[in-house]
Each structure stands twice: as structure tokens, then as C-alpha cells.
Amino acid sequence: MMNPPSKRKPKGRFVLVYLLSLIISGCLFFWIYNQGKLISLEGADYSALLAPAAHEQINDLIQVLLALSVVIIMAQVMGGLFQLLGQPLVIGEVVGGILLGPSFLGYFAPELQQTIIPSHTLPFLGVIAQLGVVFYMFVVGLELDLKVLRKSGFSALAIAHAGILFPLILGSYLALYLFKDLSVPGVPFLHFAFFLGISLSVTAFPVLARILTDKKLSKTSIGTMSLTAAAIGDVTAWCMLALLVSLAQNTYGNAIRTAGLTVVYIAGMFFLGGPLMRKLIPWLEKFDRLTQGGIAAFFVALLLSALATELIGIHAIFGAFLLGAITPHDSRVAKELTDRVEDLVRIVFLPAFFAFTGMRTQIGLLEGAQDWTLCGVVILIATLGKFGGTFLAAKFNGFSWRDSSALGILMNTRGLVELIILNLGLDLKLITPRLFTLLVVMALVTTFATSPLLSLLRLSSSDSKDR
Fold first, then answer.
1. What is d(CA 442, CA 447) in angstroms, rounded to the nearest whole number?
2. Is the CB of residue 372 less than 8 Å from the CB of residue 436?
């Protein structure tokens, strides 16, 4: 027990000491300042060199913080609005990003747009967006259940690959008519056609999972089959895209080397990294919760895996996805990582990606009835390929007309995965901004149509019966 002070010191003495200390400190600092002026190098004006750079950095930071704040608010408002309309959150977030871009805000209030998101902040938003996509693909990999893929059997494989091959062929055929007007000069037709086919073939696995949950279909046979087929299809599409990236970034000789290194890396991740991960997870789960050191180790592994695939010649997102995929899906560590990373990625990083995409989407590039007719044709072909291929494969495997139709509608969901692929194609200069805009509209329309079309089929958890 502390002894009470014997006598309380007068308050005035403390004030006097405090004021004297301030005065003495000020005097000492003034003396030091004058001494420093005497020893300064004559004619050397370092302030002229350092001050502008520091000033620019502060301005850039202010602009990025302001832009990111506006982007997050817009994403939340538009996402909530579209959820009220029965649409996935991602649709509203994408629309919010487009509204902040040249298609809306830049068109009606260009000065306001330059104040909120000036053009010189786009590189910073781009870096944030790329990091967001890398972490997002890691989360997608964590949510991928490889056991379900192995146990799905021929039906899911057939449905998934039919849902890829049909739109791939139709997209490649469409490239014959689009190549002359909508390709970048110097891009080979093979690259252009292959990319267009892939962009019409993907299914947004995370968006599909959200729609199934909202519709209470995730535990039904249709929900399980569509999720499994979408997972198989996305893995296949990512592999095809990795091959295309290696072709686009290198000569054919180097492309073969890149493809070989990619195969070696994938094999190493699954046959060496997978068993190592399965031994590491039980040890980490001995603790009550994942420690900061454990999270740091995963993040370092994530960044190194992303770096490895980037150095190989394919995109960093593949390395992030692979690391997530080899982490046991049903482990407590995977769930903790998802819980800790997902909110930050979805609330901060992905809206930056949507805004970055919106800034690159110029609806004004689609001029006149001809362009909008072409947009309608692309939407029709994308839907016909994805829905038709899935529907025929499902019917062949014994599904009813209604269930086959439901699978076709669900597999036609594109959303965020499509936007990632389109941004990659634009970065690689495989497509023009005009075609990029056209395909963004296609992705939005096909994803937007999923929920209303499912409602028309009047599917519910009680209606769908296991076969």
C-alpha cells in the first residue's frame, strides 16, 4: 500500500517550473537553429529539392485517401441498393465503380470527378486493386473444396467442360467478325480469339455461391452440382488463361518454357506444397487461435507464390489462388484466414478494383445503334454458349428440363471473375477499351439476369429434389 504524500506542493510552483522549462527550451532551440545556419553549406538549398517531393507525396496521400473513402461509400450504397432489388452485392459495387468513372461522373461533372479521383491517383488505385485481386483469389482458393471436385464424378466434369467448350467455340467464331475492328494492332488472331472465347466461358464461383445462399439452394442437388461444375470450370478457365498469358507475353519458344515452368510449379504446389500444408495445419491448430506469426507466415507464402507465378510469366493471381487451393478447405486455419482477410478485401480492396475498372470503362465508346446491337449480339452468344452447353450436358446426364435450365442459368453468372479476366486482357493489350467496355456490359447483364430468371423457374429448396 502506497504511503500518502506528506505535503502537497503548491500549484503555483508547478506552473512556474513549467513556464520556465518552455522558455529555456525555446531559447536553446533558437540558439541551435542559429548555430546550424552558420555551418550550412553556402549555395546549397536542400529545401528546394526536398520540399516539393514531400509536398507531392502528402498531396498524393490526401487524394488517395479521399478517393478510397468515396469509393468505399459508393460501393456500400450501391451494393445495398442492389441487394434490396434482389441482386448480388457485387453488381451494385461494379455499377458504383462505373458511376465514378468517365461514363457518368466524368461525363456530367468532370471537374468534380477530377477533384474526387484525379487521373494521377489511378496508378495508386491500380496497385491497391491488384493487391486486392491477389488476396481475393487467395480467399477463393481457400473456399475451393478439392474433395468435392474429386468426388463429383463424370456429371460435374461433363457439365463444367460443356459450359466452357460451347462458349469458347462460339466466342472464337465471333472473333472472326470482331478482329478487324476491335483488336489491338499487332495482336495475333489466335490470341484475340482465344481470349474472347475464354471471356465468354467463365462462371463467377463466389458470386454464384452468394446467389445460391440467397435463394436457399446451396444445399440442394442443383446447388451442389452448379457449385462443383463452376469450380471445375473456373480451374479449367484459369489454366487456359495462364497458357494465353504465357503466349501473349513471350515468343512461342519462350511460351513453351513458360508453359513448362507453369506445369512444374502447379505440380510442385499440389504434390509437395499440399502434403507439407496438411502436416503444418494440425500443428497450427494446436493453438487456441491462429497467431500473428502464423498469419504472417501465410501472407509471406501468399506473396512469394504470387511473385513466383509473376516471374514465371503468368499473372500473380494464379500463385495466390494455388496457395489457397492447397490449404485444406475444412480446416480451422482456412476458416480463420478467410474470416480475417475477407472483410478487409471485400470492403476496402475490391471496391478499389471496381473503381479502377469503372475508370477504364467508357460507355460513351459504344456509339449508335450498331455498337449497341453488337453488344446485344455478344450477350446473346455468351448466354447461348454458356446456357446451351450446360443445359445439353445436364440433360444428357439425366437432369430434368427444369433442373437443366436452372443449371444453365446459374452457370451463366459471370460477375467479378469476368472483370478480373477483362482487366488482365486490357493490361496485356489483347483487347481495345471499346471491346473491354462491351464485355463489361455483357458481364453485368448476364449476372444481373441470374436471379430474375431463377425466380421465373420458381425454384426453392423444397422444389428441388435430389436425383
1. 8
2. no
Per-residue CA distances from 15 to 9, 12, 28, 228, 347 (Å) = 11, 5, 20, 74, 49
pTM score of the predicted model: 0.72
pLDDT bracket for residue 10 (50, 70, 90): low
How far apart CA 441 and CA 284 sit, in angstroms, is 44
- Tally of residues, the chain: 467
CA-to-CA distance for 107 and 116, rounded, in angstroms?
Answer: 14
Q: For residue 151, what pLDDT is reported?
A: 65
DSSP label at residue 367: -
Burial status of residue 434 (CB atoms within 10 A of its CB: 0-12, 13-18, 19 or more):
middle
Contact predicate 424/245, CB 8 Å: yes
| pLDDT band, residue 7 (cuts 50/70/90) | low
The helix-helix angle for 450-457 and 205-214 (nearest 10°) equals 40
Residue whose grid cell is 436471379 = 451
Give the Cβ contact number of residue 329 at 10 Å: 17
Q: How confident is the model at residue 461 (pLDDT cuts 50, 70, 90)?
A: very low
- pLDDT tens string 354-410: 888 888 888 888 877 888 999 999 999 999 999 999 999 988 888 888 888 989 999
Q: How far separated are the first and last CA of the chain, in Å rounded? A: 76
Residue 183 backbone dihedrals phi, psi, to 5 degrees: -95, 160
- HEC assignment per residue over 24-65: HHHHHHHHHHHHHHHHCCCCCCHHHHHHHHHHHHHHHHHHHH
* Phi, psi for residue 101 in degrees, rounded to 5: -90, -170
Question: What was the pLDDT predicted at 458?
Answer: 62
